[in-house]
Design a protein that fits this description.
Elements: H1 2-18, E1 25-26, H2 43-50, H3 55-67, H4 71-87, H5 91-103, H6 107-114, H7 122-138, H8 142-152, E2 164-169, E3 174-179, H9 180-190, H10 194-202, H11 208-222, H12 227-244, H13 247-259, H14 265-278, H15 286-301
Antiparallel strand pairs: 1-3, 2-3
Amino acid sequence: MKDILLGAQASLVFFLWLISGSPVMAFSDEQDGLAIASDPMSEIDYQNVLQSESLKELRNACLDSVRFSQNNRLHELRERLLLLSKERQSFDSLVSNADALMSCKAPDSAQKVLESVIPASSSQRRELLILLWQAANSALDHESASASLMKLVNGEIQLLDDEQLNIGFASEGVLIRRSALDLLASHENSLGRHYSAAMVLLSGRIDGILGARRLAFVSELLKYLNTDEQSKLLEEALEKLILKGSWRSAEVISRLWLKLGLISKEDNELILKRLENLKFQSQKHLPLLAYIKEASKKSSSS
């Protein structure tokens, strides 16, 4: 029961953080070629669209059906789009088809369409992976969503900190975007991979307001780990920061280590002193790394 409560708390903390940022872009139905309608599409117009091969018109019909809760129409539109996806196999057609299926509230079907796409260039691969993430995220398929983000940067997680992805709309139709690195951490947490989620967060920027939020979530995730796992996680994160010469972030991790009682105050003070010296002697970090490992072992055995 305690683990369940901790999980709920960690997920809630992170969810509230994800939705708390500033909107970045206005959105309206006109962007989809639609005027704001007070009534659903007429039956005659709907039947004409349903028989058409225009993905734009079918997408607009999906939006109309969602707006007015026309569930029977949504089902028929999904079936029509899936049929067209088998007949029209170009990259642009399949991508547009998947986008229309997303508008029809069928992210799982969109995933299936996108999985059949073979990109012909790096730009197409990037577009495809982002769409695959969007579909998986909407379908709550955290495993596929996580895999798509990892593929987007070829496994170099820290690069996700420079990627901003759309996560939905706030009030008045304002589009909200978030760092792909934080989104990956959220997926890993939802999968119960708390060690991985914490390491993802510590791979990004941990200074300023954003860093404070990330460290707060890392502190929640550490509650799932035993003492050895906690020390291993922070040790690995600290080593990476020292090797990169990220002294300020390394100091933040060191202080977190002390706060959690994973290392003695004396060892922590010596680490901070050596970090200060290393700012001017960036090639002499290896002795410090060896000391950190020894201090961690000593703390674990005491």
